[in-house]
């Protein structure tokens, strides 16, 4: 079975079981084995729920599925859409384990002569992103930044299928970091995280809910990528409006 499909199925089953517990369905065959898949909270027994939450949290920290070390290892070994011989390298996400904000771009494009691990979006794009975060009073130490597509293609443009396959890795990153807000920068990031095929110019300017990690939905703000803004400076005012909306929510 395709490991990406298996991973998606695992997340869906876990979320279904969580829903069952919220509505009071708590008895299953081999229940003790199923408890490792989801956080059980019974409204009739708060004390038991807290103990199970603590146990689940401990299991999660040791589970490679939710470990950033395990996620990076899997990304490094992944060849689902791009064999190693067809890529210049990979760009892993950077930032704290508990970020105030997660920023997701489309794909990395290091400049010629720049090692992939020295940039996230690109040299000029990274500089613009730092200025954007400073404008809304955020240090880069508070922000986790990554791309949907993790590999740098030799020809500079990975196949569109790469974004869909890499989305599995991104969902695991979100599940591990559990940010309250995600700034989705670019068409691919915005489309995958909102589940919409609408153009970015129509998606931007409002928040969307992403529930792929279970529990409380993550709020998504789609906006234009720094790469796009370098080519279309007239769109910067729109992005500034998006960033101000995000700042107001972060400061609540």
Please, could you describe this protein's structure?
The chain is an alpha/beta fold. The strands form two sheets. A five-stranded mixed β-sheet has the order 3-2-5-7-6. It has a two-stranded antiparallel ribbon with strand order 1-4. 31% of the residues are buried. The chain has helices at residues 3-22, 31-34, 46-62, 68-77, 123-135, 161-177, 187-194, 200-203, 226-231, 236-250; strands spanning 87-90, 101-105, 143-147, 151-153, 181-185, 208-210, 218-223. The chain folds into two domains: 3-62, no CATH class; 89-250, Uracil-DNA Glycosylase, subunit E (3-Layer(aba) Sandwich). Helix 4 runs antiparallel to helix 6.
Q: What fold name stands as the CATH topology of the largest domain?
A: Uracil-DNA Glycosylase, subunit E
Unreliable parts: 36-62
Largest sheet: 5 strands, mixed
Could you give the order of strands across the largest sheet?
A: 3-2-5-7-6
Helix-strand category: alpha/beta
| Name of the CATH first level of the largest domain | Alpha Beta
- Tell me the Rg in angstroms: 19 Å
Share of helix among residues?
40-55%
DSSP summary: helix tally = 10
Shape: globular
Estimate the mean pLDDT confidence: 80
Count structural domains: 2
* Number of strand elements: 7
Strand content: 5-15%
Q: Tell me what the CATH architecture of the largest domain is.
A: 3-Layer(aba) Sandwich
- Measure the end-to-end span: 45 Å
Any idea what the CATH superfamily of the largest domain is called? Uracil-DNA glycosylase-like domain
Short recap of the structure:
With 252 residues, the protein is of the alpha/beta class. The protein has ten helices and seven strands.
